[in-house]
Specification:
Layout lengths: L15 H36 L8 E6 L5 H10 L6 H11 L8 E6 L4 H8 L7 E5 L6 H10 L5 H9 L1 H7 L14 E5 L4 H21 L4 H9 L3 H14 L6 H13 L12 H10 L16 H5 L23 H8 L8 E6 L2 E5 L2 H11 L1
Antiparallel strand pairs: 1-2, 3-4, 5-6
Length: 375
């Protein structure tokens, strides 16, 4: 006789307490999820708003940013400048994603096409700022460069011109002259938008030092000879090189033009004695300190007889012997090389002969003939 199989046992029911615990866990998780959504979604919306472009068309604006502004005051200041439409949202963006304490005081170059995130990056001068290629041409002075830097939103023109003269920055960089003019090496750079002017100047001056040292190594003894014979250092070498840069057009004439100026300093028969008589120096005086000389009033870039007669222009080398107070432009390597290794000539004069070239003369009579023949 077969045995009957045992009946399967019915599953045990979960205790009522466990069911209650499970429901409460689900409720807690649901509450946390809702809470996170309530917290995160507004933050995502705020961040998304900050990524939107500004309402303007990219109009450039200069903003002089004061120190110690809190987030609310920062938003209000940007709204008054027409850079943000919602000062409250910008203030919240600063509080959550940035820090108002990191906003750098000073002149900032902004534009009304920037979104809130881009504005914050510029105002804090964050490393993540975009960069732009900026070319410093040979023969430009710092005033010309300052205009280009503002046009490309690298830094404010007035702030850059002020930094060029800053005594503390000059001491830091070991510059002996009245400004860093001449040491803003001509080259193409990648510069961050809305940079501090001092940051830009450090980059350009360090590039100059690197290139100048490499050039001097190719002409061993040249600097020492200039130091021993003339008492010249970097400042004087760059000053003469800047004049050569402004006068020369074709490269093979640069060493010859350098020799003319050195001969004028050395030749006791040259009259007036030790006068460089370089037109570009007088013009530079009207650019850099127009208020000093009456002849600079209304200066339009043209060198006039009145300008060359004005002794109140410190840079007028028709009235002041020797080198001018400092460089008048940024010389390139070819002009620096021309001063370190000038041609061996007896020329004292030169006149433009067309096509960028010059006619060189030893005597004043020959020079006058060259002028007549060049007309």
């Amino acid at each position: 006789m077969s045995k009957r199989a045992p009946r399967p046992r019915a599953p045990r029911r979960a205790p009522k307490k466990a069911k209650a615990r499970s429901k409460s866990t689900r409720a807690l998780a649901s509450g946390i999820g809702i809470g996170l959504a309530v917290l995160v979604l507004p933050l995502l919306a705020l961040f998304g708003w900050a990524l939107l472009p500004g309402a303007g068309e990219g109009r450039r604006l200069l903003v002089d940013w004061p120190a110690d502004l809190n987030a609310s005051a920062a938003g209000e200041r940007l709204a008054r400048a027409g850079l943000v439409q919602s000062p409250r949202l910008f203030a919240w963006y600063l509080r959550v994603f940035s820090d108002a304490a990191e906003l750098e005081p000073g002149a900032h170059v902004l534009n009304d096409g920037l979104g809130a995130r881009q504005l914050a990056q510029r105002l804090t001068r964050a490393r993540s700022r975009p960069e732009r290629k900026v070319t410093v041409p040979e023969g430009w002075n710092h005033a010309q460069l300052a205009r280009r830097l503002e046009e490309q939103e690298i830094c404010a023109e007035a702030a850059f011109r002020k930094a060029v003269m800053d005594a503390g920055l000059r001491r830091e960089l070991g510059v002996s002259g009245e400004s860093v003019e001449g040491l803003l090496f001509p080259a193409t750079y990648e510069l961050g938008v809305d940079s501090a002017p001092a940051e830009v100047i450090r980059t350009l001056v360090r590039t100059f030092r690197k290139r100048f040292e490499a050039l001097a190594e190719k002409h061993p003894g040249a600097r020492e000879e200039l130091r021993q014979r003339r008492g010249w250092g970097e400042h004087e070498i760059v000053t003469l090189a800047s004049i050569v840069e402004r006068e020369a057009v074709v490269e093979d004439e640069r060493p010859v033009i350098a020799s003319v100026y050195l001969n004028r300093l050395d030749d006791p028969e040259h009259r007036p004695e030790k006068m460089l008589q370089a037109d570009p120096t007088a013009a530079y005086g009207c650019v850099i300190e127009p208020e000093r000389a009456p002849s600079c009033a209304g200066f339009d870039g043209k060198v006039t007889p009145a300008l060359l007669r004005d002794a109140q222009n410190r840079y007028n080398t028709y009235k002041h012997p020797g080198l001018p107070p400092g460089p008048i432009a940024s010389p390139g390597e070819a002009s620096l090389r021309a001063v370190l290794a000038p041609a061996k000539t007896e020329f004292l004069f030169f006149v433009a002969a067309g096509n960028g070239r010059h006619r060189f003369s030893r005597s004043f009579a020959d020079h006058n003939r060259a002028i007549e023949e060049s007309r």
